[in-house]
Amino acid sequence: MEKATIFEAIHRALAPYVGATMAAASTRVHCEKLGISADGGTLTDDQLQALIGKLGAGLVVFIGREKAAGVVEEIRRSVGAGGPR
Amino acid sequence: LKRLPLVAWGGVVAAVYVVRTLSPGSEVFRGLLTDGVLIRIGGVTKLAFLVIAWLFAHRNAASLDRENPAARPWRLLSWGILAFALGQGVLTTYQLATGASPYPSPGDALFMVSYPLLIAATAAFVGAYRQAGYPVGSAREHAALGLLVGVAAAAFGYWLLRPVLAEPAPLLARVLNVAYPALDLAWLVPAVLLLRITFGFRGGRIFRAWGLVLAGIVAQCAGDILYAHYSGLGDTLLDPLLHATYILSYLFIALGVLEHHSLLH
Q: For chain A, which end, N or C, has fewer CB atoms within 10 Å of the first or last residue's CB respectively?
């Protein structure tokens, strides 16, 4: 799956809560931690699930489990991914 | 709970106090809105905002899982606001009965109890949000910023409060006149750290919610510092402005807690 498409979906879902700047910065930081390069290319399904999981886990602290689950679900729907295996 | 009526209520009452400060000789303040009437309206307004803030802070704490790092800070914040609301409740009872604000009053004991809880809550939010894994600064950076703000607050407090201690006021009043601004300045240290963290979220609802709460904390500090400075000089001209400051402080805190509530639900 194209990184640009995924990152755009993540930013769109996160920005209303964390702002556009933090949405981009947190995606970049979590990609670095997961060893995913920020340049073009694609993400494997495992990388995508790991990235969404990291972002969702952090969001739980700010907006609670249910709302964070809703945001994660929105990202998954946008990029056409299923849940984690 | 609708926020617009709260904003209108707090805004109108605060505006009346500001007009009272700027134009104390107006006819309306000698007839309809005497100081006794204003202090009762102001007292009830402050109490209402604090009760709303406590109720929704309590709900926010209850809605988070126990293992959520933000659950404990929310509990501490709700206890702190509850102690503050109880203190205001005692004070407002006096105000409704007499049309005056006794100082010191038994309510001050509850206000004093609230501060350690509020400071601990704010510091705990800093720790919880750092754990979330978002790029909000390292523990070392936060320690350095906290130290810098702490030293600046201590220096400012020393400069501000040394003359207050020497004022010819009763001992308890002097102690409280020093304690409130000193505790406010201590509260500002974790509040600045929380601002540093949440500023990264600008443009989002998390920043809006915390921006309101932090604006309330700053207004609270400003009110206490002004009160300590001017009451020691025997100057009561600014008293209505202080009431406006406290009303806006509690309004902002209530609005921020409500925004958090809508974020969580």
A: C
- Write the ipTM: 0.91
pTM of the model: 0.94
The answer to whether the Cβ–Cβ distance between B135 and A57 falls below 8 Å is no
Contact A22 B204 (CB under 8 A): yes
pLDDT 10s digits, B236-259: 778 899 999 999 999 999 999 999
Pull the structure tokens for residue B249. 């402080």
Q: What is the DSSP string of B142-161?
A: HHHHHHHHHHHHHHHHHHHH
Q: Which residues of B touch A (CB under 8 A)?
A: 63-65, 68-70, 128-129, 131-135, 200-207, 263-265
Q: Using CB atoms, which residue from A20, A58, A64 is nearest to B134?
A: A58
For chains A and B, CB pairs below 8 A equal 79
Cβ–Cβ of B134/A16 closer than 8 Å? Answer: no
What's chain A's average pLDDT?
90
| 3-class secondary-structure state, position A45 | helix
Instruction: Give residue-wise pLDDT tens across range B166-206.
Output: 888 888 988 998 999 999 999 999 999 999 999 999 999 99
Give me the sign of the Cα torsion angle B134, B251, B187, B124: negative
pLDDT at A83: 58
* Residue in the structure block whose two tokens are 């799956």: A1
Q: What is the pLDDT of residue A2?
A: 86
Residues from chain A that touch B206, judged by Cβ atoms under 8 A, are 17-19, 62-63
- Round to whole Å and give the CA distance between B157 and B149: 12
Q: Are B191 and B217 in contact (CB under 8 A)?
A: yes
Residues whose CB is less than 8 angstroms from the CB of residue B62 and which lie 6 or more positions away in sequence, other chains included: none
Q: Is the CB of residue A20 less than 8 Å away from at least one CB of chain B?
A: yes
Question: Average pLDDT for residues B147-163, to the nearest whole number?
Answer: 94
